[in-house]
Structure formats: structure tokens, C-alpha cells
Amino acid sequence: MKTFYYSHPDFLFHETGIDHPECADRLRSIEKALAAPEFSALIRRSPPLGTEEQIRLVHPQAHIDAILKAIPQQGEHHYDQDTVLSSGSRLAAFRAVGAVCDAVDQVLAGKADNAFCAIRPPGHHAEPQQAMGFCLFNNIAIAANYARQHYQLERVAIVDFDVHHGNGTQAAFYHQPNVLYASSHEMPHYPGTGYPTETGAGNIINVPLAAGDSGIEFRQKYNRLILPALKNFKPDLLLISAGFDAHKDDPLASIRLVEDDFKWVTQELMVIADSCCKGRIISALEGGYNLKALAASVAIHVKALMTGLDIK
Predict the structure, then answer these.
(1) Residues with active-site annotation
(2) 56: nearest Cα among 170, 116, 168, 138
(3) Is residue 20 predicted with pLDDT exceeding 70?
(4) In which region does residue 309 sit, left (phi positive, over 0), alpha (psi from -120 to 50) or beta (all else)?
């Protein structure tokens, strides 16, 4: 497998303040883990800056303008209780959009089989007209619409295994049956959305997990609800909102996954992608706030993308 890995120093300069869980050390821990010899075959790629045109695929210009206007020249500015802006936020946010869109270009051109984008700020809480939950622009939703517009794909699927529901991604595609959004997440938990009754145009699949659930419940629900829906949908491209905060050691949630669960779900998604969309997968980092657990979980996720490991 040929796997592209996107990272850039600009992501480190989105400063969120002392003790904020969504910090630059998250990416430093990932970089350290992926520097191991077993990742020497990763194709490391520096992402271009994204454009306002790309961001407008999901967010109106007024939202973009509001974010840019709120970015301080120095120090940090709290956009809301959780979401912080600094002087480096513009470059980081635009670079994150550039990463996912370039990954679409490379994967759909056949230059890569799949890609992992180690980006920040994350995106799946950003609704079309509202930044929230550490997120400014919805990277994975932008990637989906970029693929649909520029490559005329009929069906794009997004699987979100972050422990928090991707309310922003759901909002972006709630009435668009050609985009399947499937999310597993802890409930009740932030942001308070993601009930099974939220089905959109039949394209939204919400799979709540209860506090204390482990890989047993996680795998059962994927096997029963998410994986069959993906098979039936037959996407032309599979996108992953890859949050690793469902790990048992994460401080922001109470699900008890371990690294092998992230390996398993990655392999299962690869099996489906191989059967319906030539294996084309683009994964973008969302949450994960215990540095050791995040690094180990990303490492096993990327290793699976690279090799399939024991893929069926």
C-alpha cells in the first residue's frame, strides 16, 4: 500500500493556551511515534494552503470572515468557552483544509492508495455557520464536497469514530443522500447530538455508546449497524474522521477502547473500501488528548493503512 502522510509546522502554531487539551504536543507525540523505522515507507507530504473557495464548499463567506476577524495579532482569543484562536490559527486552519483537499487529489489520481492527515485544528464539530468544540472549519466535510465537485463522485461516505459526535459533519450533510455519515460516539456527552433518531435523508447513522463500553460493544455495533450500511451504500470514496479519544486513557471521555480496537476498525473499513472504491481512504485527525494513547493509536491506525496488517 502507498500511504501519504500529511504534516506541517504551521499546525504547531495554532496556540490554545496553557492546559488546553487540544494542543500542539498532540502532533509532536504523533510525529515521534511515526519516526520509528517501521514507518519508513510512509510518503511524507507537506500540504499546500487551502483556499477560501475550498472552505466555501461547506461554510458561507460570512463564517470565514467571522473567524478571520476574530484571530488576534498576539496572545489567544476565546471564540467560545472551548475554542481558542491565536495569531497562528489562520495558517493552521487553511493548511488543514489544504491537506485534506490535496489528499483527495492524490488518492483519486492514483498516486496514493490512502492518506492520513495529521492536522489541527480538528474539524468535525464545526457547523456550516458555527465554530465550536475546538473546531474552526470542517475539514472532512470540505474534503467530501471537494471530491464530489471536482471529481463528480456520486457517493462519498464518512465514518467518524471520535468519541464525540460530529454535529458539524451531520449538519453539513443532513439533507444530502449522496453523502453517508456514520458516527459512533459516547452518549450522553458533548455536544448533545447524535441520537439514533437523527437520520437525515436516510443517510445519517448514529450509533451511541454508553460510558464504560469497551471494544466488545464497539465492534458489535460496527458489525451490526455501520459496516453493513457502508457495504450497501457502496461509496466511491471513504473518509474517516479519526478521533482517538475513545481510548480508555483519554481524559475527556469514558469509553474504554484500546489500540487493537482502532486497528480492527481500520482493517474493517479497508476491507469495505477495497470492495467498492479501489481501497481509496482518506483519514483526518480529530480528537485524542492523552498523548501516549494518541501516539500509540495513531501509529496502529497508520500501520494498518500502510499494510493492512492481517487484513482479510
Answers:
(1) 125
(2) 138
(3) yes
(4) left
